[in-house]
Specification:
Growth Hormone, Chain: A; Dipep/tripep_permease; protein transport; alpha+beta; MFS_Transporters; single chain; 16 helices; 7-stranded antiparallel β-sheet; 3 domains; 597 residues; transport
């Protein structure tokens, strides 16, 4: 109860000017953090639930080959990391973070909902020496088997080690053998439903650009300059990311398997709708946060920006179509031929990155001091290695998911685990390891032993390689079914989660500390551009692990296993070598960083 001044008690001037609600806390932090935490958690629930399904959806429902599916997945995730550059700028200059988050949440929810409408499963067929044959799918002993219909006969399809295909009769005897290249798997797909799927991906990409950078901006606004709770607040906030992804990567694949693809995507849409509800109906709790910048009265450009964003959807749609129609590079054409064969999206990403990085360094050499130039050089070296890290780490949603589907036992300790659900391992280990890693770095810092940023980056790269080697080690113990125990895949994600915690938390902070003050925003853009490029290249790398399939199913699990092992060994060798190179470079880089930690 507030005392009312009387004649006997003269009023004292109000010198606090503090909103009483500002004193309310949530675990020692502003109460608004709880709402933003929940908003982010449900947004990540939707995003990671959908991501867990996407590659499998493309290969099983639309019956795309591995090359098309992993390429499309890489292009989609590349746009997801690229659009925040534009969304963050528009919010800073015109919309304000809160309106940007609301708009992004609506678009993403509608995008996930649109994915629920996939139509009938594509109907596979095979071209055998130029002649078309129907492919039928039957269940034998609980497993799907593909047959070629040849007149009145149904012949089982079996891929051979040399690339040829045998067609087997009733007693599994080879009725016919088709030479390598003579058997081509295809499918009748509805152009309409493919268009619906690509429009949905475009909506999510645009919406993410408005949501992702601006929810973090609002968290930053909760704390005054110099407030020591800021870092801890962001740590709590980012925990919401992993809690959301942990739940959805279990539930969405479960529903997709038990009910249908529409149910898995529908749950992602519901999660995203919850996120929008929390920010839209905040009861005034977020008043004053994420508001539009002070502009001239009567010049609110929000409607124009929303309209322009919607125009971005057909533009992204065309980029996806171009990506899907990309022809493979001609053998022997070299690096130039490879670049020429890239999709329009790939050319734009690579071109911007390859021109931007040297361009910024040239500018910093001319405009900055010797110290500033050296710090920018250190930042750019780390940006390049960061690109390599995420290229290899982000095999999780593409080649590793397909490996889980084809060459991994679908259970661990008697608990069924589907291929889509395997991505939850990463979120689980991040939640479990984050406090341990925080304690480790803090204690090492007290003793003056905490590794420098370049050393942490190097450890992360080496660890990614070791994770793939661990999985390859497990393939030595496969049985006649050519499937590894789920425990080996879980071990890979454990090692990769440790690697992620070595590089991810320090990346953005490193950029802000090493950049020349006049171009911090531009350097942040380069950082996100590097991750976007990495996502695209990750799709390209996954294409090297492409396996021939018929109706979404591999015809020779031994060939499939050998293909994955070969690619994973190459990835591990590249990652470990580059990690060792970065460790060797850590000494001059530390000098160039001039005390930045």
């Amino acid at each position: 109860m507030v005392d009312t001044p009387t004649a006997d008690t003269p009023a004292e001037p109000d010198i606090s000017h503090v909103n009483p609600a500002a004193g309310e806390t949530w675990f020692g932090h502003p109460r608004q953090l709880a709402r933003l935490f929940s908003t982010e958690m449900w947004e990540r629930f939707g995003y990671y639930g959908m991501r867990a399904l996407l590659t499998l959806y493309l290969t099983k429902h639309f019956v795309f080959g591995d090359r098309a599916a992993t390429g499309l997945y890489g292009g989609y995730t590349a746009l997801v990391y690229l659009t925040p550059l534009i969304g963050g700028y528009l919010a800073d200059q015109y919309l304000g973070a809160k309106r940007a988050v609301k708009f992004g949440a609506i678009l993403m929810s509608l995008g996930y909902f649109t994915l629920c409408f996939g139509g009938e499963t594509a109907k596979p067929y095979a071209m055998i020496d130029g002649a078309r044959h129907e492919v039928q799918i039957a269940s034998v002993a609980g497993e799907e088997v593909r047959y070629v219909v040849d007149g009145a006969s149904k012949l089982k399809i079996k891929g051979n080690d040399d690339g040829s295909v045998s067609l087997l009769g009733a007693n599994n005897e080879a009725v016919r053998t088709v030479a390598k290249g003579g058997f081509v798997s295809e499918a009748d797909r509805s152009p309409f439903y493919i268009a619906v799927m690509l429009i949905a991906l475009s909506m999510v990409s645009v919406g993410n650009g408005f949501f992702k950078p601006n929810i973090s901006t609002m968290v930053g606004e909760l704390y005054a300059q110099g407030d020591r709770r800021r870092d801890a607040g962001f740590t709590i906030f980012y925990m919401g990311i992993n809690l959301g992804s942990l739940g959805s990567q279990i539930l969405c694949p479960f529903l997709a398997d038990a009910v249908g693809w529409w149910a898995g995507f529908g749950l992602a849409a519901i999660g995203m709708a919850f996120s929008w509800t929390l920010i839209q109906f905040d009861g005034g709790k977020l008043a004053g946060y994420g508001e539009p910048p002070n502009k001239e009265a009567g010049k609110d450009r929000a409607l124009g920006i929303y309209a322009a964003a919607l125009i971005g959807i057909p533009i992204f749609y065309l980029l996806f179509v171009n990506l899907m129609n990309m022809a493979p590079p001609v053998e022997g054409s070299g690096f130039v031929g490879y670049i020429a064969s890239l999709s329009l999206m790939g050319k734009l990403l690579f071109g911007t990155f390859l021109i931007g990085v040297p361009g910024i360094l040239i500018w910093s050499f001319i405009a900055g001091s010797r110290k500033e130039f050296q710090m920018m050089m250190a930042a750019m070296v780390l940006v390049v290695f960061n690109t390599v890290f995420w290229t290899l780490f982000e095999q999780a949603g593409s080649s590793l998911t397909l490996f889980a589907d084809r060459n991994t036992e679908p259970q661990m300790f008697g608990i069924p685990i589907s291929a889509g659900q395997t991505q939850f391992f990463n979120a689980f280990f991040i939640v479990a390891l984050a406090p341990v890693m925080s304690w480790l770095w803090t204690n090492l810092a007290k003793r003056g032993l905490e590794p420098s940023i370049p050393v942490k980056f190097g450890i992360a790269l080496i660890s990614v390689g070791l994770g793939f080697l661990f999985l390859v080690w497990g393939t030595a113990y496969v049985g006649p079914d050519y499937k590894v125990a789920m425990l080996w895949l879980a071990g890979l994600y454990f090692i990769h989660s440790f690697a992620e915690l070595c590089i991810s938390p320090v990346g953005l902070s490193m950029i802000t500390k090493l950049s020349i003050a006049r171009v911090v925003g531009l350097m942040m853009g380069v950082w996100f551009l590097s991750i976007s490029v990495a996502q695209y290249v990750a799709g390209v790398v996954a294409q090297f692990a492409s396996v021939e399939t018929v109706g979404g199913q591999v015809t020779n699990l031994k060939v499939s296993l050998d293909t994955y092992v070969s690619v994973f060994v190459t990835i591990s060798e590249v990652s470990i070598v580059l990690g060792l190179i970065l460790l060797a470079l850590s000494f001059p880089l530390k000098h160039w960083m001039h005390g930045v930690k």
